[in-house]
Amino acid sequence: QVQLVESGGGLVQPGGSLRLSCAASGSILSIQLMGWYRQAPGKQRELVATITSGGNTNYADSVKGRFTISRDNAKRTVYLQMSGLKPEDTAVYYCNAFLTSTTMTWGTYWGQGTQVTVSS
Predict the structure, then answer these.
(1) What whole-number distance in Å separates Cα of residue 67 and Cα of residue 78?
(2) Among candidate residues 31, 11, 30, the one with its CA nearest the CA of residue 89
(3) Is 24:3 a contact under the CB 8 Å cutoff?
């Protein structure tokens, strides 16, 4: 059993900042890739940022220079520091992990999502 639990969402004014966290737990041997996706009402889920176990990062063009993804491998936790938030960043943000379980199976897991609302 693997769980991803997100925290840190909320309501923020345009130009403000938020930090999301996602902790993975359960029968995990190793986590190759962690990331954040988001889904706005009426839109498809889209990639925000990913980070490998070695620290290589990838960002959507829409968030480059404003969002920073990081991870603590020992804590099996990924973070998303968001600054310069815009109303168009409003969405449910989902944590994602591609990992190897203790039963030596690979799989992609999702968190339950956390709402981020950017509004004045």
Answers:
(1) 13
(2) 11
(3) yes
Contact criterion met (CB below 8 Å) for 103 and 1:
no
Mapped onto helix, strand or coil, the DSSP state of residue 119 is coil
Secondary structure string (H, E, C) spanning 50-82: EEECCCCEEECHHHCCCEEEEEECCCCEEEEEE
pLDDT band at 12 (very low <50, low <70, confident <90, very high): very high
Q: Give the model confidence (pLDDT) of 25-80 as tens digits.
A: 999 999 999 999 999 999 999 999 999 999 999 999 999 999 999 999 999 999 99
- List Cβ<8 Å contacts ≥24 apart for 57-63: 62/88, 63/89
